[in-house]
Design goal:
Blueprint: E1 8-11, E2 14-16, E3 25-29, E4 32-36, H1 44-53, E5 61-65, H2 71-74, H3 77-84, E6 87-90, H4 95-98, E7 109-110, E8 116-119, E9 122-128, E10 137-145, E11 148-154, H5 165-168, H6 178-190, E12 197-199, H7 208-215, H8 228-250, E13 253-257, H9 269-277, E14 282-289, E15 295-297, H10 304-307, H11 318-321, E16 326-328, E17 331-333, H12 338-345, E18 351-356, H13 362-371, E19 378-382, H14 385-394, E20 399-403, H15 409-418, E21 422-424, H16 432-440, E22 444-445, H17 453-461, E23 466-469, H18 472-481
Helix pairs in contact: 6-8, 17-18
The structure holds zinc ion (ZN).
Length: about 475
C-alpha cells in the first residue's frame, strides 16, 4: 500500500482516499466521482491506488473541488486532471498559490460563493469562507445512510498557523492582516450551518483516527455526530484568539500619537503615514461624529487650534469639514474619516488605538472596525468609562482601554466589572512595581502624555506594553537599543 490509510467508506456515498496528513474525499455519484481536495503532488499515487482498491477507475473522476490553493491540498490536482480529464474547481483568489512553478496549473472553473456543483444525483453547495487563504471554500452535501439523510460539511480553510504574524510578514507570503478578520467572519457564517458529518483538511481536525477505530465495531456510525461541527469551529476561534493574545502580550506597541504629530498636522493621513515611516507599529487617533453622522478623526472639542475655524466637529457636515485645513508648521492636510484611515492602513501590521472623543460614536466605530477586519488588532479607548461599557455591549470581543490620570483601587474594580482590558495612566504615574501589580491583575498597561525622552525611557523600563508618543522614531530607536 502506498498510502498510510486503507481507503474506506465514511457514510452514504462518501469515501476517504487520502493519507493521514492530507485528507482526500470522493463522492461516488450516479455519474462519476467528485473529489474534494487532491492531496499533494507526492500523494497522487497513493490516491490512485486507493481509488483502485475501492473499485473506481481514474476515468470515473469528473470533478475535483479544491478547498484552497495550498500545495498539500491542491498540489496533486494537475496530475489527476491529466490522468482523468476531470475538471478542477478553485477560487480565483487562490490562483497565486497554484499558478506558478512546475506543478502549477490554472483551474477549469473558478468557484463562486453559493455555487451548487451537481453531478448525477449529488449536489455540493460551495460557500466562500476566506481566512486560511484569500480564496478558501467550504463544501456541504447530503449523505443517505440507512434511509436517513445527513448533512456533511468540510470547512475548507481551517488551521490558523498561517495567521501568525511571523508567517504573514514573510516576504514570500505577504498575507494581509485582513485575513484574521475574514477568518472570524467565516466562523460566524459557518456556525449557521447544520452539519452531522464533520470532515477535515487533515485527519486530526475531525479526529478521524479515533472514529476509524470504532467504525467497524460500533453499531452507530462514529462519523455522524451533529455536535462536532460547532465544537470544531469554537476550537478554531479560540486558537486564533490565543495567537492574537500572545502576540499582543509580547509585542510592544509604539503608537504614533495622532500620527507623527510632532512634525506633521495631527490626526491627518500625512501624520499617520509619517508615523508608520518612522517605525511606529501602532496608530493612535480620536473619533468624533460630524453633524451628518460620519466618524472623523479629530482631537479637540474646538476646531480653532489646528484649523483656525470656529465651532466644533458636531456643528458641521462632512462636506463642510472637508473645506477646512489642518495646519502645522506650514504643512496642511484635511480632516480624514475613520474609514479613510482603515481603508489605507488596515491591512498592515499595525495596532489601532481609537479614542472615543465625542458622544455617540460607539456603533459607527464598531461597525467600521469589523468591516475592515481590524477587530483583533485594535483597542477602543476613552476617558469616559460609560463609553467603554457601551462599546462592550455592542461589540463584546473588542479590546478596550480606559484613559485616566491615575488609578485607584475603586477604578480597578470598576474596570474589572466593565471588562476593560487596558489601563492607560499618565506616564509619570507608571512605576515598575505598579506595572507588575497591574499585569498581575491581567491588564495591559499603556501610558500616555509621554512628553519627553526621559518619561519615555522610564515607562519602557517599567515594563509597559506600549505607549502613545508624538515621536515614534525616538521610541523605535530606544526599543532597538535595549
Ligand atoms: Zn492550507
Amino acid at each position: 500500500m502506498l498510502g498510510d490509510i486503507a481507503p474506506f467508506r465514511i457514510a452514504g456515498n462518501l469515501y476517504f482516499v487520502g493519507t493521514h496528513a492530507k485528507s482526500c474525499h470522493v463522492l461516488a455519484t450516479s455519474r462519476g466521482l467528485i473529489m474534494i481536495d487532491s492531496g499533494g503532488i507526492d500523494t497522487v499515487d497513493a490516491i490512485l491506488e486507493s481509488l483502485d482498491t475501492l473499485g473506481f477507475s481514474p476515468k470515473d473522476l469528473k470533478i475535483v473541488l479544491l478547498t484552497h490553493g495550498h500545495p498539500d491540498h491542491a498540489g496533486g490536482a494537475k496530475r489527476l486532471r491529466e490522468i482523468s480529464g476531470a475538471e478542477v474547481f478553485l477560487a480565483e483568489e487562490d490562483l497565486k498559490y497554484v499558478g506558478e512553478g512546475p506543478s502549477g496549473f490554472v483551474p477549469d472553473r473558478f468557484l463562486q460563493d453559493g455555487d451548487e456543483v451537481a453531478l448525477g444525483d449529488t449536489v455540493v453547495t460551495c460557500l466562500f469562507t476566506p481566512g486560511h487563504t484569500e480564496g478558501s471554500f467550504s463544501f456541504f452535501f447530503d449523505l443517505v445512510e440507512n434511509g436517513m439523510t445527513y448533512r456533511a460539511g468540510m470547512f475548507g480553510g481551517s488551521g490558523v498557523n498561517q495567521l501568525k504574524k511571523s508567517y504573514m510578514n514573510r516576504p514570500d507570503r505577504r498575507v494581509s492582516y485582513l485575513m484574521r478578520g475574514a477568518f472570524f467572519k467565516t466562523l460566524d457564517r459557518l456556525e449557521e450551518e447544520h452539519v452531522d458529518v464533520t470532515l477535515g483538511n487533515h485527519t486530526w481536525q475531525n479526529n478521524q483516527d479515533e472514529k476509524m477505530k470504532k467504525l467497524f465495531v460500533s453499531p452507530e456510525n462514529p462519523f455522524i455526530d451533529p455536535t462536532e461541527w460547532r465544537k470544531y469551529l469554537a476550537r478554531e476561534r479560540e486558537a486564533l484568539w490565543k495567537i492574537i493574545r500572545e502576540e499582543t502580550k509580547s509585542a510592544f506597541v509604539n503608537y504614533a500619537h495622532r500620527g507623527a504629530s510632532e512634525t506633521r498636522p495631527e490626526n491627518t493621513m500625512t501624520a499617520f503615514y509619517e508615523g508608520v515611516a518612522l517605525g511606529a507599529n501602532g496608530i493612535e487617533t480620536d473619533v468624533q461624529m460630524t453633524r451628518d453622522g460620519v466618524p472623523v478623526l479629530f482631537h479637540d472639542d474646538a476646531l480653532l487650534r489646528v484649523t483656525g475655524e470656529p465651532g466644533s466637529i458636531g456643528d458641521y457636515t462632512l462636506a463642510e469639514l472637508r473645506k477646512f485645513t489642518v495646519k502645522k508648521d506650514g504643512m496642511t492636510d484635511r480632516i480624514p474619516t475613520l474609514e479613510e484611515l482603515l481603508a489605507a492602513l488596515s491591512w498592515r501590521d499595525l495596532t489601532f488605538a481609537i479614542e472615543l472623543k465625542g458622544e455617540g460614536a460607539e456603533e459607527a466605530v464598531a461597525d467600521l472596525v469589523y468591516r475592515y477586519g481590524v477587530d483583533c488588532k485594535c483597542v477602543v479607548t476613552s476617558f469616559v468609562l460609560d463609553r467603554l461599557r457601551r462599546i462592550r455591549a455592542i461589540a463584546p470581543d473588542l479590546r478596550t482601554g480606559w484613559l485616566k490620570k491615575d488609578f485607584t483601587d475603586e477604578d480597578i474594580e470598576a474596570m474589572q466589572a466593565a471588562g476593560v482590558d487596558e489601563l492607560c495612566p499618565r506616564a509619570e504615574n507608571v512605576t515598575p512595581e505598579r506595572v507588575e501589580e497591574w499585569h498581575a491583575l491581567g491588564f495591559n498597561v499603556r501610558p500616555w502624555a509621554v512628553t519627553d525622552d526621559a518619561l519615555m525611557r522610564a515607562a519602557v523600563d517599567a515594563g509597559a506594553d506600549g505607549m502613545t508618543v508624538n515621536f515614534p522614531d525616538r521610541l523605535a530607536a530606544y526599543l532597538g537599543e535595549r
